[in-house]
Predict the structure.
Amino acid sequence: MIRIIFFIIVLFLFSCDPGDEDRQSCYSFINGTDRDVVLEFYSYNSGQNISTIGTYSLNGMGLLNNFCKSSRRALGPVSVIRMDSIIVKFDNTKKITYLKVNELGFADFLYHVNDYTKEGETFNYSYTFTEEDYNNAIPF
């Protein structure tokens, strides 16, 4: 019995990895246009009600917002921001809506880490809204 307890303690001690520290995953959204861009994040709370996570705007080029969260593993954008939908408005005349689950049952653009530009070997990711995004937006 003592051998079993000793074995379990040794196994537990060797399974702990002191190098496995928290790392910070960050997602930045950048206005790469000369337009007024409004970025809105929403959560549907499992269909119960819609709540606004945040609204960020910038007229002209620059950082709209940066979201960061620490974890022992690299996190995707949904884990960091906790959003169900994203609405991007350009000059308050055109918009693009991105859904966590679209009508085909899949996540739209901006819900996967591969949709972002990664900065080197860090866990910093960014997406820049461009004139192409504006051209693909629909009038409202």
Observations:
- The chain has a mean pLDDT of 87.
